[in-house]
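Intended use. Records such as the Cell division initiation protein entry shown here are meant for training and evaluating sequence-to-structure methods. They are not intended to support clinical decisions.
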Amino acid sequence: MPLTPLDIHNKEFTRGFRGYDEDEVNEFLDQVIKDYELAIREKNELYDRVQELEERLDHFSSIETTLNKSILVAQETAEDVKRSADKEAKLIIKESEKNADRIINEALSKSRKISLEIEELKKQASVYRTRFKMLLEAQLEMLNNDDWDMISQPVIEEEEEEETYENI
């Protein structure tokens, strides 16, 4: 068991013949008591400081553990978000590809339909041109026919006769 300052203070030495000088021993003991009290006070202060630092260390260790768990949760959440975003991106791409295929198929269908309509219009234009040409040729043939000359001859003769009578 360690000595206390009180043990040192109360310690009495037996006196012998021609022993130590009592004042000198007491003075030395007083100095030892002061130094010992100081050492004990420092020890207690250091003990308290160690306790405080251990509490802070425990606190920071707890914070570290919590932060590590939080980081793990954040990483897992980030991975989940990334997986979800990848999945959504793939779905968007797939839907876009379907829409693109549908649009292309519709455009091809419309293109074929328009091509058929153009061909039909070309045929109709050709038929119309042929008919119009035939009509014009028939009309020209009628105009070139000698029958017109015969029809117009009596009118010319009548006009000439009328002019003759008028002059008379």
